[in-house]
Please model this.
Amino acid sequence: MRLFIYSIVDGLSGLKRSGISSLLTILTICCSLVLLGAFYIIRQGLRENLQETRSRFVLEAFLLDAEPEDHRKTGEKILHLAGVDSIEYVSKDDALARVRETFGDDYLALIEDNPLPASFHVVLQPSYVNRDSVARIVAAIAGVPGVEDVVYRATLIDLLNRYDRLVGAGFIIFGIALSILGFVLISNNIRLTIEAKRDIIETMELVGASRGLIVGPLLIQAMIEGGLGALFAGIVLSVLVQVGTIFIPVLSPVTATSIGVLVLVGVLFGFLGSFNALGWRIRY
Amino acid sequence: MKIIRFNNVRQSYPNGEGIQLADFSVGRGEFVFLVGPSGAGKSTILKLIIMSERPSSGTVEVGEYISSSIRPGQVPLLRRQIGMVFQDFRLLQDRNVYENVAFSLRVIGKSGAYIKKRVLRVLADVGISHKRYQMPQNLSGGEQQRVAIARAIVNEPLVVLADEPTGNLDPETAKDIMELLVKINIGGTAVLMATHNYHLVEQTGFRVLKIDAGVIRE
Ligand SMILES: Nc1ncnc2c1ncn2[C@@H]1O[C@H](COP(=O)(O)OP(=O)(O)OP(=O)(O)O)[C@@H](O)[C@H]1O
Ligand SMILES: [Mg+2]
Model:
């Protein structure tokens, strides 16, 4: 317990003692996390945007003329297909009304008989909105008795597919690379700090300091540096997002929770970084 | 009652240097000089005592610990019973005089109140309390060595090991430091002081261990 308190107190005064190098560590952590955070926020924004686009994607299943009761049965079958989220029935009259709304009355006044087929607007579960699933679902819907034809905007699917790959694998690889880079930077920085304390650590060993007493304050110091760096990164990020929203409206604001998570990540970075840097130094 | 005992110790380095034979002991409260020319192996003997090195053969006993059986985790415990003073002082450069001395007590988990009382007491004993809030780099060599001695004795060790403690000091200051070590010894703490300054040794009349061609005997 006394060791723990000492570690915290000494870790704190270690910040002051290390001065510039401590500041550098905080700055490194801050920069790494701003980079990582900005990257994450952009990815998140794109994802939400994609999700939104997906949820607006509809298939139109045109129906053969039949009794409303038969249409209802057809609709039920469509609704039970895997990947279908919801359906909306558009009767012949509805279809006509919509066309009227778009083109005006005169255009249709000429026609006596309503030529428009009834249809279902089929909304898919967002995760099914990709080329393969859509093709599968379209085939399935087309196979449902009473369905004449299924149409959809294939180009939108292609576009979504392309974005998907970018936001998926590409971003993850980039994100991991960025994390590793950040970690290496931080770890190296802390290693330098500790290397500068080599004499001090050696002297402490001579005086009979146990491992905990030497390592404790260094770990705590690095964790505080990590937390502080992350906190600054959080502040920088929220300002950046505020400014960025003007240009890219999809960015969601940085919440207190996400700053909290960021600080935890920073503390973890500090801990792992110094642990990694210390490993070779301590003999017992 | 012996606190340090070397039993047929040989410590050879790959380059052929080192100690051929060390067989001696130091008793409680003794003042012993360890003399020999530069490179004779004086520092090596001290390193063997604090067990930062283990002998090639033979055993070193310090207090209750024996080099052949001590576990790594026990080394700090052993060192808490030994005060170390070096030619180059080796203070913790990142904290002030008071904290340097207090560190030896924090190591053994003493309470804050005790630490304060004890550190101030010892700083006064070595005559450096007026500089207690100074950083080591702002002190003269003699002052730094006083701080180092304060650190060495603050937790009342069995023995103080001094490796050429006056080597970096002018004769006047060296004499003061010497007197301080003698004073500590009179207080009951054993002192083992390595030096190549025969002149200094002859003046005092304390026991002398000589390293002669790598051999030390009683
Ligand atoms: N770790 C080591 N590896 C190899 N050789 C060493 C090592 N430590 C000491 N030596 C050698 O052992 C010999 C004795 O060294 P030591 O430092 O004990 O001498 P010393 O008597 O303290 O000398 P000085 O008066 O100059 O301090 C030297 O020749 C030194 O080069
Ligand atoms: Mg030496």
